[in-house]
Specification:
Keywords: NAD
Protein name: UDP-glucuronate 4-epimerase 4 (UDP-glucuroni c acid epimerase 4) (AtUGlcAE1)
InterPro entries: NAD(P)-bd_dom, NAD(P)-bd_dom_sf
Strand content: 5-15%
Radius of gyration: 25 Å
Pfam families: GDP_Man_Dehyd
Strand order of the largest sheet: 3-2-1-4-5-6-11
CATH class of the largest domain: Alpha Beta
Distance between the termini: 43 Å
Number of helices: 17
Number of strands: 16
Domain NAD(P)-binding: 28-341
CATH architecture of the largest domain: 3-Layer(aba) Sandwich
Bound molecules: nicotinamide-adenine-dinucleotide
CATH superfamily of the largest domain: NAD(P)-binding Rossmann-like Domain
Length: 494
């Protein structure tokens, strides 16, 4: 929280206003700038609960939509504090100062495939951040009740369908799933030791208005509008991926029921429960596209590609009988109705066209392992890397460390969208291009000669820029194609 002065006063006044409650409930919703948190917070406020939001507004996907969600919530009386879950003193302050009765813990690093690119963010938010939140809760008196987001991904390699809470879930297929499973186990520990009441909700692929741009319904809509091909994953033997797509209002209904029914956090009353919140009606991704085509009024271009080894599972299908019985959960929205509502929102939200940020957003799915030869073939620069300045052209050797090999710089040139670090294995490259000073060129040449490499000096920095621009275009295309990359048995793989 701001340390002193007018900012602190504004913070406290707004938070105090936001937590005013006519129902006795004061709910801290984490992840209110996110998709599900936004909708839940809005619902709670409308019925009179005191609600305070918390979000770190991280740039995993374009932040413009996060700020718009938070602004819309603020207009409805819900204040979102910009803070990280790992800010323990902030959590202590919020929980105690505003006498929080319930926590709806939705803030997390979401997304299955991104975990192959930035695994640390999952550990920081989903594991460390979650523990900080529970630690802060356990020191409250009275302790709040906690409902938190798990995920259908915990079913991982489970082959028994539909997925039931009674199934064993110890074979996660992604780091994301492993952190969500960890949440459930950590929740059990805090329930067991400190008597915290804990309800975990395994959401199944949520979609709807204000949805996530990294998810299929959203990204497919943008591509259909632009006339770009949709990549559709196929499993073994050309089988189609199936998902239990669940409309946001049905998820909100399940979250609200969980908050309303969770017993008090005392040793005597606390419970530990986990529920599936799905739609119990899995459909193929192709069917989802047909719904989008009808709602948008335009045909999609479909490109079926093999599923990359990044942790997606072939089919998710929810058995929601436990939630039906204990939460009175009844998903009622058909996929076509839900998609119609999503498209109506999308058309209104982007009535003036996509924002610049959204128009340039490319969600990179980086395979866990690269087929090096294939990657270089896509770039048509076998065993060559374009380099410009000293930090980029320094192969391992005496000068390394002084100059450093900056892949950050190179991926910056590539718009930060494509992590080239595995390519920068200088040991396996034999050609470098540089526009450096003659002295630096000579030094690099000496280093390269020792391992039989070739250095190709460029005539001027302009030539480099021209080539870098070309590489950028290729990288963009490659990024689009990455999905096709499959490790070959005989290839060098990372
Ligand atoms: N949307 C789905 O289909 C789906 C499916 C299964 C599970 N979930 C889970 O539901 C929850 C909500 O998902 P969503 O779709 O709204 O995702 P989202 O990414 O839109 O929202 C999550 C929000 O949490 C915030 N956040 C992340 N790390 C944080 C941190 N360390 N501190 C503070 N804020 C942080 C992000 O900025 C984001 O706004 C997540 O826990 C997600 O894993 C979602």
């Amino acid at each position: 929280m701001p340390s002193d002065g007018p900012q602190k006063r504004r913070f406290e006044t707004t938070a105090a206003e936001s937590t005013k409650s006519s129902t006795g409930r004061v709910i801290l919703v984490t992840g209110t700038a996110g998709f599900v948190g936004y909708h839940c917070a809005k619902f709670f406020k409308k019925r009179g609960d005191g609600v305070l939001g918390l979000d770190n507004f991280n740039p995993y996907y374009p932040v413009g939509i996060k700020y718009d969600r938070a602004q819309d919530l603020e207009d409805s009386g819900v204040y979102t504090i910009k803070a990280d879950l790992n800010d323990r003193s902030m959590l202590d302050h919020i929980l105690q100062e505003y006498k929080v009765t319930h926590v709806l813990a939705l803030a997390a690093q979401a997304g299955v495939r991104y975990a192959t690119k930035d695994p640390a963010s999952y550990v920081a938010s989903n594991v460390a951040g979650f523990v900080q939140l529970l630690e802060a809760c356990r020191f409250c008196d009275p302790q709040p009740r906690i409902v938190y987001a798990s995920s259908s991904s915990v079913y991982g390699l489970n082959t028994v369908s539909p997925f039931s809470e009674s199934h064993q879930v110890d074979k996660p297929a992604s780091l994301y799933a492993a952190t969500k499973k960890a949440n459930e186990m950590i929740a059990h520990t805090y329930h067991h030791i400190y008597g915290l009441s804990m309800t975990g909700l395994r959401f199944f692929t949520v979609y709807g208005p204000w949805g996530r741009p990294d998810m299929f319904a959203f990204s497919a809509t943008i591509k259909i509008h632009k006339g770009e091909a949709l990549k559709i994953f196929q499993g073994p033997g050309g089988s189609e991926l199936e998902r239990d797509f669940t409309y946001i209002d049905d998820i909100v209904q399940g979250c609200v029921a969980s908050v309303d029914r969770i017993p008090a956090s005392t040793k005597e009353t606390a419970h530990f429960k986990v529920y599936n919140l799905g739609n119990k009606d899995p459909v193929t991704v192709t069917y989802m596209i047909e719904c989008l085509e009808r709602a948008i009024g335009k045909k999609a271009i479909k490109n079926y590609v093999p599923m990359p080894p990044t942790g997606d599972v072939l089919k998710t299908s929810a058995d929601v009988s436990l939630a039906e019985k204990e939460l009175d959960y009844k998903p009622t929205t058909s996929l076509q109705d839900g998609i119609n509502k999503f498209i109506a929102w999308y058309d209104a939200y982007y009535k003036d066209g996509l924002t610049k940020e959204m128009a340039s957003y490319v969600f990179i799915r980086v395979p866990a392992m690269f087929d090096y030869r294939r990657l270089m073939a896509i770039f048509s620069i076998p065993k060559t890397v374009f380099v410009a300045n000293r930090p980029l052209c320094c192969p391992p050797g005496p000068a390394e460390g002084k100059a450093g090999v900056s892949y950050k710089r190179l991926s910056g040139i590539l718009d930060g969208r494509f992590d080239l670090s595995p390519v920068l294995d200088f040991g396996s490259l034999d050609r470098f291009m540089t526009s450096e000073t003659p002295l630096a060129v000579a030094a690099a040449q000496r280093l390269l000669q020792r391992k039989g490499g070739v250095l190709e000096p460029l005539k001027s920095p302009y030539e480099y820029y021209a080539r870098a621009a070309l590489l950028q275009v290729r990288a963009r295309r490659a990024a689009e194609e990455m999905i096709d990359l499959q490790p070959k048995k005989d290839a060098d793989v990372w």
